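Methods — Computational structure assignment.
A single polypeptide chain was analysed. Its primary sequence is given first, followed by the predicted tertiary structure written as structure tokens.
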Amino acid sequence: MTKAKIKAVGSNELQTVEVNIKTNTIFMNDNAIHASDLQLFNPINGTVFGTLLNYKGELELLGGAVHEKPYQSPPIAPVLYIKPANTFNHFGAEILMPTGMDKLKIGAALGLVIGKRASEIDEATAMDYIAGYTIVNDVSVPHESIFRPAVQHNARDGFCSMGPWIIDYHEVEDPDDLTIRVFINEKLQQENSTSNLIRPISRLLADVTEFMTLSPGDVLLVGVPEHAPLAYVEDTIRIEIEGIGSLENIVVAEMDIGRRNVI
């Protein structure tokens, strides 16, 4: 069993429980309940920051373009963007396909949940600032340029599913070596590992907090691997991260407002 924190719909407080990350079940009152049989709220209260170009393959895909306009050179500091509160979504909820569009990019990301105020920290102590880990589906509308990430592509309602829980930091032995898999309609569409990060977690935290403060409850995404798969209306998505569990959602048409379930 693994110690985790969940937030049930209708509650503002995190509840500590034991979970089975392989079966995605939660143990409550001596009962094993599958995450899909509970109404789980998004477990995050703070700001969610995404990181671009932190996977080696993602940067390699840019090739020589990284030395041309508008980029001019490879990034010398973390490239961040924000997933605002309107994007927050949860396990089992629907992801809305915007009217006039036919596909979405699925961004599988490990989320670092900050446990205490982090400002100008160093790599040696960086892990002490992590309260736990969660799975994030950093959804976006497919677009070519990543220079100055466009709000209209990244910040639509429900475009940041998180959960189903926060795994306590001490339950994950090596977050810099976790396998990440994306399944669409039960077919494996992407597989990568946090071992391929350009900035490992400690360095990423140190570099980010050099110029900004992270507060308790904030979430820092370590990045999205290259070749993010595409999803279409009625597709069921499952993101699995080793040691964390799995996050499931379904894509529905925005015009189908009767099925809307974004929180």
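Note: The longest strand covers residues 130-138.
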